[in-house]
Amino acid sequence: MKSEFNQLAAQRRSIYALGKNVTATPEEIYELVTTAVRNSPSAFNSQTVRAVVLFNQASDQVWDIVEETLAKIVTDPAAFEKTKQKIASFRAGIGTVLYLTDTSSVHKLEEQFPAYAANFAPWAEQAIGGSQQAVWTALAEQGIGASLQHYNPLIDDAIHHAFDLPAEWQLRAEMPFGSIEAPAGNKDYLDEQQVFKFIK
């Protein structure tokens, strides 16, 4: 069975060689991101995902914060030099999406539906994962590369302060994006028998 969706899903890869050679405007990319997030599912239609789409100096500031934070933690100079190079590759893109969970919405659901209270936090994680997948694939469809990074919670306070984010928005991931300056490497897959069962 032919599937355009699966072709796009295969096109979505972790791109680390990012550049600024993107013809789409920030406004067009913002609309692409917000539409993908809005159309992603969430348990009870709770819509707990929040996304902050940053461009230019604001995007660079995210990676400045990451570098400054890790400089206090990574004490080995050789290791920190590798870290700086990695961060520079994210800064080389044109923008960054911050993915956050609105914890106040999660807590309200826990109170409203106590029988399911233990599930709402994991369900919020599922919702944010679905949104990340949708945005990442939508960017790939436009020929824009991205990767998903997790420097939270180390950078949480500085990010909230820098961009005046609500305290109840919990940072979950950072997605730098830009032009694809070098393709992703080969992707290995586990043996099908380890992953799937076909019962007819």
From TrEMBL:
SUPFAM superfamilies: FMN-dependent nitroreductase-like (SSF55469). InterPro entries: Frm2/Hbn1, Nitroreductase, Nitroreductase-like. CDD domains: Frm2-like. It comes from Limosilactobacillus oris F0423. This is Nitroreductase domain-containing protein. PANTHER family: FATTY ACID REPRESSION MUTANT PROTEIN 2-RELATED. Residues 10-178 form the Nitroreductase domain.
